[in-house]
Amino acid sequence: MYYKLSDYAKKFGVTYRTAWNRFKEGKLEGAYQDSTGHVCIPMISVERLLSKKAALYARVSSNEMRDNLDRQMERVTDFAIKNGYEIVHSQKEIASGLNDTRAKLTKLLDKSDEWDTLIVENKDRLTRFGFNLIKKLLETQGKKILVINQT
């Protein structure tokens, strides 16, 4: 099953021209132009864009900060619920942000086919360095990272 470009535009509240530009820029996964000139977008691609399945991740660097870890996860959970996300996974971890072999984060990323958005409170809760690389890699899989506090 496919959506027409005009249906896509209505569903996402954008103009037809904006939808056309997204198609031309290759931003509509699996979309193609048929022999009559109509743009067809697979339903699965549109459903993936509408999906609000989220994975939550909270991290502190030491055991002394364990209480902060629980509060951090509460804030992330509250944000997800208030914004209509379905929470499918959540992980709390005590580990250095410099450690690139964190077991719980790795487990969460291994399950990336089950969620569409990774929600963290701050960029540094995910990692101290390489945030943009992780973000880019997830975007190539059609995923996104949502950072609640941009400061």
Measured by DSSP, the beta-strand proportion falls in: 15-25%
* Strand numbers in spatial order across the main sheet: 5-4-6-7
Structural class: alpha/beta
Tell me the overall shape: elongated
Q: Helix count? A: 7
Radius of gyration: 18 Å
Number of strands: 7
Query: What is the mean pLDDT?
Result: 90
**How helix-rich are the residues, as a percent range?**
40-55%
Report the sheet with the most strands, covering strand number, pairing sense and barrel closure.
Answer: 4 strands, parallel
- pLDDT < 50 runs, ≥5 residues: none
Overview of the molecule:
The protein has helices at about 5-10, 15-25, 45-50, 65-80, 105-110, 125, 130-140; strands spanning about 1-5, 30-35, 40, 55-60, 85-95, 115-120, 145. It is α/β, with parallel strands linked by helices and about 150 residues long. The chain has a 4-stranded parallel sheet with strand order 5-4-6-7, sandwiched between helices. Strands 1-3-2 form a 3-stranded antiparallel sheet. A hairpin with a 5-residue loop joins strand 2 (about 30-35) and strand 3 (about 40). The longest helix has 17 residues, at about 65-80. The protein starts with a strand and ends with a strand.
